[in-house]
């Protein structure tokens, strides 16, 4: 009983109050918005909100050292769950991403975000690896690439994209900014090569390369020459191979979602299908104007014109009923919450705690950024939910666990007790 009382004291007195208040505000704001979209879904979500609050209490019953010790086993367990989907998972919307047990459905990719965040923090805090930078970053990369690949081939490319957020965690721990630049450039080349002939990219790339070599031939070392040559060759191979990869490995709805970025949702081939969501999503957001139509007064929301509005497209209901002002409040809330997590991460004394905090902040940010990009048509529709707002028990519970695992660690650091 004394232990339980002590942990209750941690929860009530030492938890970061700013972060906790922002979390509560976003969950309540999300529930109010979901209730306007679907009363039935909101009632189910209320149960998951209760489970999430219970999970917070459970998290605070254990010390951070316990979470550190079980990390490798927890990570291995989630990998087994991801592999098991290929044999036992239920096919929903063309993807084997769910276990379904009667009325309960469970998405292991949500659990994988937690275990991968813990695992990458565990690796980056190992003193025996810090001395060997190559092994250090290799193990860290493998810790998020393996689950990302398993999720991608389900196929669920949307959820796998979230794992790219761990690159920014590695950057905070010493990964060169040039690596991120090369990764972004490769992604841009891949996307552009789908739309235009790869040779229109490769040819200018080689002209720039040879011009650079000739201009800097006196100051260019042999190692730099090899590096730049290798980089140009890799970019060229990505450009040449992207149309083949896109044609043979992407499903039709994935292709349409990417193609619509470079065309528009008004085209006949998209308007009645993949562009329908985006068309009405933009219409709903735009119709809200400055102050919105009023709570539960959204005609597009009430008319159910936007499919999956309670999940991926929840933001357009907010835009229609609360207007630009409501959207701005939500954006400010998210930025404050994520900034608070980054701030607390920088205060951590332990590498494990710090990198875990960065991972939590990065996951929330990439979800927030991509989801808003999806509903506004500047990013493909890839099934990324808006944390604490979109309907879904697995996602709400996993985001809550992620955030409050970090909050629990932060409490220990503040009172100097592991």
Quaternary organisation: single chain
Query: In percent terms, what proportion of residues is strand?
Result: under 5%
Question: How can the largest sheet be summarized?
Answer: 3 strands, antiparallel
**Coarse structural class:** mainly alpha
Number of helices: 19
Provide the succession of SSEs: HHHHEEEHHHHHHHHHHHHHHH
Strand order, main sheet: write it out: 1-2-3
Please state the overall shape, judged from the principal axes of the Cα atoms: globular
Tell me the number of structural domains: 1
Number of strands: 3
- Helical percent range? over 70%
Task: Note the topology.
Elements: H1 2-14, H2 17-37, H3 39-59, H4 64-88, E1 90-92, E2 95-101, E3 104-106, H5 108-124, H6 127-130, H7 133-152, H8 157-162, H9 166-172, H10 177-195, H11 199-215, H12 222-249, H13 252-262, H14 268-271, H15 274-287, H16 299-302, H17 314-346, H18 351-375, H19 393-414
Antiparallel strand pairs: 1-2, 2-3
Helix pairs in contact: 2-3, 2-17, 3-19, 4-5, 4-7, 5-7, 5-18, 5-19, 9-18, 10-12, 11-12, 15-17, 17-18, 18-19
């Amino acid at each position: 009983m004394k232990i339980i009382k002590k942990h209750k004291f941690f929860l009530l007195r030492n938890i970061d109050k700013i972060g906790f208040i922002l979390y509560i505000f976003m969950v309540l704001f999300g529930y109010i918005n979901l209730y306007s979209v679907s009363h039935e879904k909101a009632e189910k979500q209320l149960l998951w909100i209760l489970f999430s609050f219970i999970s917070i209490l459970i998290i605070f019953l254990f010390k951070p050292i316990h979470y550190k010790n079980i990390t490798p086993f927890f990570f291995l367990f989630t990998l087994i769950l991801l592999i098991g989907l290929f044999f036992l998972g239920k096919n929903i919307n063309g993807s084997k991403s769910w276990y379904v047990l009667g009325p309960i459905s469970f998405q292991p990719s949500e659990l994988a975000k937690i275990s991968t965040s813990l695992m990458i923090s565990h690796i980056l805090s190992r003193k025996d690896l810090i001395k060997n930078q190559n092994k250090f970053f290799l193990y860290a990369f493998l810790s998020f690439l393996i689950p990302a690949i398993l999720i991608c081939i389900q196929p669920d490319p949307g959820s796998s994209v979230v794992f790219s957020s761990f690159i920014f965690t590695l950057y905070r721990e010493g990964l060169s900014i040039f690596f991120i630049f090369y990764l972004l450039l490769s992604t841009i080349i891949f996307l552009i090569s789908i739309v235009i002939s790869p040779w229109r990219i490769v040819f200018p790339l080689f002209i720039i390369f040879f011009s650079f070599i000739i201009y800097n031939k006196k100051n260019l070392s042999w190692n730099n020459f090899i590096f730049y040559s290798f980089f140009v060759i890799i970019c060229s191979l990505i450009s040449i191979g992207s149309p083949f990869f896109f044609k043979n490995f992407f499903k039709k709805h994935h292709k349409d979602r990417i193609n619509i970025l470079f065309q528009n949702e008004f085209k006949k081939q998209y308007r009645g299908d993949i562009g329908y969501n985006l068309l009405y999503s933009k219409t709903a957001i735009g119709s809200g104007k400055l102050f919105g139509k009023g709570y539960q007064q959204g005609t597009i929301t009430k008319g159910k014109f936007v499919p999956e509005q309670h999940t991926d497209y929840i933001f357009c209901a907010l835009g229609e009923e609360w207007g630009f002002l409501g959207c701005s409040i939500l954006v400010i809330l998210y930025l404050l919450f994520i900034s608070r997590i980054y701030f607390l991460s920088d205060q951590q004394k332990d590498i494990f705690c710090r990198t875990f905090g960065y991972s939590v902040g990065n996951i929330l940010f990439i979800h927030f950024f991509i989801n808003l990009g999806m509903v506004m048509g500047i990013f493909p529709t890839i099934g990324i939910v808006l944390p604490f707002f979109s309907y879904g028990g697995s996602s709400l519970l996993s985001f809550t666990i992620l955030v409050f695992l970090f909050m629990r660690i932060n409490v220990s650091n503040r009172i100097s007790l592991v």
